[in-house]
Amino acid sequence: MAIYHNIDASEKEIEHVLLILQAFDPAGIGARSLQECLLLQIERRDPSKLRDLMERVVNDYFEAFTRKHWDKIQDDLKLNDTQAEALFHELRKLNPRPGASLGETVGRSMQQITPDFIVDTQDDGTITFTLNNGEVPELKVSQSFVDSMKEYQQNKDHLSKQTKEALLYIKKKVDAAQGFIEAVKVRRHTLTVTMRAIIQLQRQFFLDGDEASMRPMILKDVAEKAGLDISTVSRVSNSKYAQTRWGTFPLRHFFSDGYVTESGEELSTRQIKAALRDLVDAEDKRKPLSDDLLKDLLAEKGFPIARRTVAKYREQLGIPIARLRK
Length: 326
Known about the structure:
Elements (H helix, E strand, L loop, with lengths): L1 H4 L5 H12 L11 H10 L5 H12 L1 H5 L3 H8 L3 H11 L13 E2 L2 E2 L6 E5 L5 E5 L11 H13 L5 H41 L1 H6 L10 H8 L3 H8 L3 E4 L2 E4 L7 E3 L5 E3 H14 L8 H10 L6 H10 L10
């Protein structure tokens, strides 16, 4: 702050400002680590035994929690199955990326995105969504034009040539309006069935917000489930956004290629990349992990991929080679 903004502030003053920032919504912003982010969210809850257990898990069993070693946590805390399920259910509701819903800062301006879908995930696992129509009113043909058309149909044999021409002009415009209204209905139907298909295919992500939960999904999968042409799904996915409990994402975010292991198991490339990113973030920067070591650690996590595949995904993530990460 002193170098770039010419502000001379003590560590105590900065700490005070940070505490104020952490009191803002959404809960968890301003955290210095993922662990602190989750604890800030837990602190907003009403005092209860469940909240105390959540704090203890994040404080004392954070590594086991991030690795989803639920059995170890349950055994150490001496919880029965019902208590453990209730605890883990609440822990899964914590949002590791609370700032995602605020948009992305580009330069000095805020990129504003109006979502096309509002996805609501209930605590009981029910997922619903609505189309965000904004200020668009319900479209319909003016009643006066409808009445004029009825008059033409009922009395066209007794009308003058001039009146007939006027009413035929009106009919042309009414047909065009009805065609436009029908096109809007078709568009809304297309959006609805596309989003419904995406939610069905990526249900687990909408429940827990974990990118590692995303299954392989391509345009063809959505097109088949929605009963649409692939090109139609492609157009929708490239231009629409969905607001979820975990942030606002472009629809293309939910698509991921698949990787088939030697045993025939299909894994999501996004899932593998997320695991790779976590390993690199957690490595000792004095001794960064080589691609061979990353390959072995990924295999331990259930992602048996080749070293050259590790290198390819690392490059796609913009992660340099080991010697450049020191």
